[in-house]
Design a protein that fits this description.
Blueprint: E1 3-8, H1 12-27, E2 33-37, E3 45-47, E4 50-53, H2 55-60, E5 65-70, H3 75-87, E6 91-92, E7 95-96, E8 101-102, E9 106-108, E10 113-114, E11 119-120, E12 124-126, E13 131-132, E14 137-138, E15 143-144, E16 149-150, E17 155-156, E18 160-162, E19 167-168, E20 173-174, E21 183-185, E22 190-191, E23 196-197, E24 206-208, E25 213-214
Parallel strand pairs: 1-2, 1-5, 2-4, 5-6, 7-10, 8-11, 9-12, 10-13, 11-14, 12-15, 13-16, 14-17, 15-18, 16-19, 17-20, 18-21, 19-22, 20-23, 22-24
Antiparallel strand pairs: 3-4, 24-25
Length: 218
C-alpha cells in the first residue's frame, strides 16, 4: 500500500516539525515520502530537501493513503484545513519527537504535533490538532480541547481545563487547579508570553503579566 505524508505549511512551524516527522517514520521503519503543502506555490519546489506543492497538486498525487500534519499556528486556519482534509478523505497525522514522554492514560486525538522535550503526564485528555512546542508539559488530570496551541516552554500544571482554540504563549505558567474546581482557560483565550495564570481565564480574552490580568480593549 502506497502512503504519502505531508506537513501542511512550509513556514517556520512546518520546517521545524519536518525533522520530527522524519524521526517518526524512521522509528516506524516507514520509507514513505513526506512533502510540504504550501498554497502559495504555483509549481512543485524543493524546501529543506523535500518536495513542496500546493494542496491541489497534493490531491493529484497518486497514493492509496494520504495523511497530513497541519503545521499552522493560527488555530482557526488549522480548523478550516482539518475540515477540508476530512471532506477529501485525507487523514490527520499525529507526530511526536523521539524524546517525548507520554505517561499513563494520556489520550490524544488525531493531528497532534508534539515537539522535542514535551511531556504529557498521566490521565490527560487532549482534543484534535493540538500543538505542543519545545519543552512544554501537561501535568496530571488535565482536559484540553480541540485546536489548542502551546508555544515553547508552557507549564500546564494539574487539574486544568483548556477549551478549544486557546493559545498559551511561550514560557507561560498555569497554576494547578483541584479535582473539584479545575482552573479553566476559556475558549479562544490568549495567555501572553511569560504570564503566570493564578485563576480561571474567561473565553476570548487576553491575559498578560504576573499575576496574569485581562488586557482591556481600548
Amino acid at each position: 500500500m502506497t502512503q504519502l505524508y505531508a506537513i501542511y505549511g512550509a513556514s517556520g512551524c512546518g520546517r521545524s516539525l519536518m525533522p520530527v516527522a522524519r524521526q517518526q517514520l524512521a522509528r516506524d521503519n516507514d520509507l514513505s515520502e513526506i512533502v510540504f503543502i504550501d498554497d502559495a506555490l504555483i509549481e512543485i519546489a524543493q524546501i529543506n530537501g523535500h518536495r513542496a506543492m500546493n494542496y491541489a497538486a497534493f490531491i493529484n498525487e497518486s497514493a492509496e493513503v494520504k495523511a497530513v500534519q497541519i503545521a499552522i499556528a493560527n488555530s482557526r486556519v488549522r480548523e478550516k484545513i482539518a475540515q477540508r482534509l476530512e471532506q477529501d478523505g485525507i487523514h490527520l497525522w499525529s507526530i511526536q519527537a523521539d524524546n517525548v514522554v507520554l505517561m499513563d492514560q494520556a489520550k490524544i486525538a488525531a493531528g497532534a504535533a508534539l515537539s522535542p522535550f514535551v511531556t504529557i503526564a498521566s490521565n490527560i485528555q487532549i482534543g484534535k490538532c493540538f500543538h505542543a512546542n519545545l519543552y512544554s508539559y501537561v501535568e496530571h488530570d488535565c482536559v484540553i480541547g480541540d485546536f489548542v496551541t502551546f508555544a515553547p516552554g508552557v507549564k500546564c500544571n494539574g487539574n486544568i481545563h483548556i477549551e478549544d482554540h486557546a493559545y498559551i504563549g511561550a514560557g507561560a505558567m498555569i497554576k494547578q487547579g483541584t479535582p473539584d474546581q479545575p482552573l479553566v482557560i476559556g475558549r479562544g483565550a490568549v495567555v501572553g508570553m511569560g504570564a503566570v495564570v493564578t485563576k480561571s481565564v474567561p473565553a476570548g480574552v487576553t491575559v498578560v503579566g504576573n499575576p496574569a490580568r485581562i488586557v482591556e480593549s481600548k
